Amino acid sequence: MATHAPMPGQQIPHGSGGGHTHHTDYRSIRHWWIRAAWCSAGGVLFGLLLPFFLRWVFGLDPLWNEQVYVTTTSIFSVIGFLIGIGCFDWWGRWMVGKHVDYEDHSFHGASSWRDYLRVNTDHKVIGVQYLVIVFSFMVISGLLAELVRTELARPGSQITSGEGYNTLFSGHAALMIFLVIIPSFAGLANYILPIMIGAKDMAFPKLNALSVWMLPPAGLMILMGIILGGYSSGWTAYTPLATQAGTGTTLFEVGVQFAGASSIMTAVNFLVTIITMRAPGMTVWRMPLLVWANATTSALVVFGTPFIAGSQFMTLFDRVMGTHFFDWTAGGDVVSYQHIFWFYSHPAVYIMMLPGFGIISEVLATFSRKPIFGYRAVAFSTVAIAVLGFGVWAHHMFVSGMSPWLRIPMMVTTVIIAIPTGVKVFSWVATLWRGKIHLNTPMLWALGFLFTFVIGGLSGVFLGTLPADIFVSDTYYIVAHIHYVLFGGSVFTVFAGVYYWFPKMTGRMYNEKLGKWHFWLTFVGFNATFLPMHWLGLQGMPRRVADYDPRFANLNLIISLASILMVAGTAVFFYNAITSWRSGPKAPWNPWRGRTLEWLVSSPPSIFNFDATPQVVGGPYQYGVAGARHAIVFAPEEIGGGELTETTHPTILVVAKDTVTGKSLLDATRELGTHGLWRFTFVSPADTDAEKQALVRRHALAAAVLDKAGIQASGKVVTGDIVQAIARAAQDEHAHEIMVATYPLGESQWLRQDLVDRIRKATGLPVSHVTVSHKEARATLDAPGLAHVMVLAHDAVGGGALLDEIRRRADRSPARFTLVHPADLPSPAWGDESNALRGDAVERVHQAIEELQQSGVAIQGEVVDGGIVAAARETVGAYRPDEILVVTTAGQDLNALRDVARGAIIDEVVLGAGATS
Amino acid sequence: MATTSRKEHVLPIAIITLVIAAVSVVVALTIDWLPDPASKEADRVDLLVWWTVWASIGIFAIVMAFMFYSVWKFRAKDGDESDGPPIHGHTMLEIVWTAIPTVLIGITAAWAAIVLIKNEDIAQAGPGPLRVEVLAQQFAWEFTYPDLGVTTGDLRVPAGRQVVLNLHAKDVIHSFFVYETRIKGDAVPGQVNDRVRFTMKPEYAGKIYPIVCTELCGAGHGVMRAQMITLTAGDYDTWAQQAKATAAEAAAKAPPPPPPTTTTTTP
User: Fold this and answer.
1) To the nearest whole angstrom, how far is the Cα of B214 from the nearest Cα of chain A?
2) Which of B89, B105, B266 comes nearest A374 by C-beta?
3) How far is CA A540 from CA A548, B52, B165, B182, B225, in A?
4) Contact A242, A249 (CB under 8 A)
5) What percent of chain B has a predicted confidence (pLDDT) above 90?
6) Which residues of A touch B188 (CB under 8 A)?
7) Average pLDDT over residues A389-406
8) Alpha-carbon span A605 to B145, nearest angstrom
């Protein structure tokens, strides 16, 4: 019952030898999602009943007011969802006095894709969750943009007009800003930043999980607002237009609250993490610029985001609670909405830009092989931009009819921001100077960013000059400018970051060629789309209109066509990201020869990033300085301490025989292996040649499974006295530790011989013991990455030739097998004759499987009624094989089989006559 | 050694800068970017716009020249894994590239402030400005001449005389924009915006310009249009007399219109 908290200063044990158990929560994702569905439904119900009850009690007439009910149901359904999915479980248990374990990491780390679909407190998992959410919404909101461009391809009305069109661009902007750009930086930083400062995780992991899980409901709400209609007042949602609007606007106003809350919690988390969790030696002047950027951005979020929350609450209250904040007919003030809104939303453009500046600094330094020029100036200019960013909001309101005197001071502060921004750009270009420039994909994006951002920055100065702003305000010039800074600026940096850290995050290299295609398609498409909009704006084409003057027709058509290039680029990106993630070449620890801490650990990093606290000894960008280092990462004491490098992989000797492919053994090795510190050698004693062959096959299988998890393993078959052979192997391999896998006590020959102790004595090494049940040892490996071969054998079953054929296939490359034996039975299928025949068939399959398993082939089997094609049709769906091996004594017509094979490779082997006996 | 190696870069960078600048200048000059500056204010705005454009082209050309030259000249050979020289910064250079933009920005801001103040100066000479009350509503414009007691759907202004618009809105925010004046202002419910002030040049008399709403105001935002007709001083006087007479006649016949009601929204 006792709960305990770590005492201040108390060293928490960690690493593989410490007190942590990294077991994963046993409940399936189904459990959590069903619970989430129920709780959301409960939230909806509560959201309906609460206002109904209150309105009834207070005698409010009418009882039904749509916007009130939409507000409460949307709020409570999200709260219900968050409770249901498990965001509050730990705190809930603590509150009611149940046992909570501060060292419980069952919600930490990921071993399969399923772990990404539930609440997880691992900053790396959360980072990936963020990015997946972000890119999903990027697709949706990109499609909305394409619909906008379709409508604008010709003057007049194409697919929609009026409200429909207003909804399209409002939705595009709101999703891109609140669900794509802002959280994309939270995602990248979530993954990278704790590693960069040498921390094991974020300061508040549970809060971190809550932040990310707030995003999907927030996005869905805005999306529903688009679908249900009524969200048509632009992402700025100016009153009184927004006050008049329908359900969609209510959903937007609630959705923004959740996105904003998520943003604020993440910012607090980053601030505390950066302030308190830096590794020894990581002084502020040794922090990488991404850390500087995120610290500054987080401060901006904490100060600024409450203002947009306030502005949306006030509009919402005006709509559903009868307040009059912005109701000018009752003493409210319309323009004050814009002041509050922009007091956040201008700093928000820096929230969307500063982390990108950080990414660019990392990428430029690494791929120019030079220190960032003027590191301190770049760091200080970040802070200067953030501070000045709060003094310029009213430049969005030069034509709004606000107090006229305010305009010139705001213009002055606005254009002053160009100075620190200019310092950054000049420093970046100077970083390139005399460098050794490598044009990898991240670098291309960084250079592309420089090009577009300089244009966006200069058009920003143009807009800052008051009379020019009055002239082009609310025209396409604004659309051009915002896309040059938010797309050519922010999104380019996000792509630079995603490519830069892709190897670190996935452990795989992306395809460089496709990455470059993505860049060039997007870069050309981007400039062809948005550069002409400057002209449209200067010619006076207003923004936010579905119809326009026919003299702009041709240029708009060109713009709409050019935008398709960006769609193509994005498609290439998704193809590249998904295929590379699944099967790209393995990434080394440090593919770009970077200096910051994240490159000094494995790709992907182990569950707590560092197995021993790293030590920072110098600046982050000491390229070209002889002997200079940024940090040292240590190996844990259990493997001897000292500096940890990619080549440090002490061997663990795994002694096992038939149990080599047992699940518990593989799980144990995989768990140790994910730390990236160990490699494994399977040592198995054999007496006969047949045994030897079987063991070689099992070693290959186990190695293939571990290889999929990024773990090196090899096998060795020894003969003679077991203990001596093992001692010899331990010496040859410089083994650090020995792991013995046996059958359970009572069934194990080895345990009877007291093998574990004898090995310990003979080698003097630490020996651990894993038990594998008989059933497990024989169970077909269901591990990812092993090819699944379905063997369809009709009359060949029972013959030695079939078994040889399967062994031959097994030796070609590691695979697991399913033997399907179609039994053509006489009708009726339940008759005595059929039953007898089926019994024989089952017996034959049993024998074949037994023999094959003896020889180290992972195989299971099944007897299916019907001919070959019918049997295939019945089983392919269930087994989903990668290959089908058809073994017959007579040729078969494979065309019919091809139709049911679901894309599996079909291979046919015709055995000679007499093979069956 | 360092000096010679620095000198070798000067010429190519200068050439790239000039090429980028030349292309930008050709684009700037061959396209008619700012047609019909029909008001006196437009000339001031356009001049300021061109100043920022020229300055921007200069900065863009220099920065891009350095970038492209670096990428071309300092590209690492295949298999070259060495690092560049550890240049951490150069204080003098950093001061210079902070100071130059500061000066440019200072000039621009001062210039912009002067243009704004001049554009919004109320004319004292002659008959003084013509004041028109503008009422914007979803999705139409209404122009009232208090001196004449006339309300119209099109805005008629005399060329050569300053016009000051008092913008009002009935329902949501709208924005008044006549491209050729380069002046814009929001019409906000509950307050009056008097910052749209312009003087049409006499040579632009007899022209019709579209008035467009530039602040999103709902479903009909894109079609919320009206016309501004510029007249010579003489023509305007003629029209004013006629309109005044017609309005007086109509007022005599019809009962006075009810006072304008304010719309209220109930939650």
Assistant:
1) 6
2) B89
3) 10, 18, 20, 9, 14
4) yes
5) 82
6) 334-335, 400-401
7) 93
8) 74
Q: How far is the C-alpha of A364 from the C-alpha of A371, rounded, in Å?
A: 9
Give dist(CA A332, CA B265) in Å, integer: 12
Distance CA B221, CA A44 (A): 36
In this prediction, residue A480 carries a pLDDT of 97
Q: What is the pLDDT of residue A106?
A: 72
What is the chain A residue with the closest CA to B69?
Answer: A433
Is the pTM here over 0.90, yes or no? Answer: no
Q: Which of A492-501, A589-598, A738-747, B210-219 has the lowest mean pLDDT?
A: A738-747
Indicate the residue type of A211.
S
What distance in Å separates the CA atoms of residue B120 and residue B128, rounded to the nearest whole number?
13
CA distances from A865 to A821, A837, A862, A874, A880 (A): 8, 11, 10, 9, 19
Which residue is associated with the tokens 């179609």?
Answer: A822
What ipTM is given for this predicted complex? 0.93
Q: What is the mean pLDDT of chain B?
A: 91
Which of residues 81 through 120 in chain B touch A, CB cutoff 8 A?
Answer: 81-90, 93-94, 97-98, 101-102, 105, 108-109, 111-113, 115-116, 119-120
The residue whose two tokens read 């203002």 is A307
Q: Which residues in chain A are closer than 8 Å to B75, comparing Cβ atoms? A: 437-439
Q: Residue A313 CB: number of other CB atoms within 10 A? A: 18
Contact A300, A351 (CB under 8 A): yes
State which residue of chain B sits closest to A437, comparing Cα positions: B75
Q: For residue A710, is it left (φ>0), alpha (ψ between -120 and 50) or beta?
A: left
Rounded CA separation A295/B101 (Å): 27
Annotate A828-852 with DSSP letters as a single string.
Answer: STTSHHHHHHHHHHHHHHHHHHHHH
Whether A370 sits inside 8 A of B189 (CB atoms) is no
pLDDT, residue B189, reads 95
- Over residues A667-680, the mean pLDDT reads 78
Contact B87 A451 (CB under 8 A): no
Q: Please name which of A649, A908, A663 lies closest in space to residue A792, comparing C-alpha atoms.
A: A908
Return the number of CB contacts < 8 Å for A and B.
Answer: 277
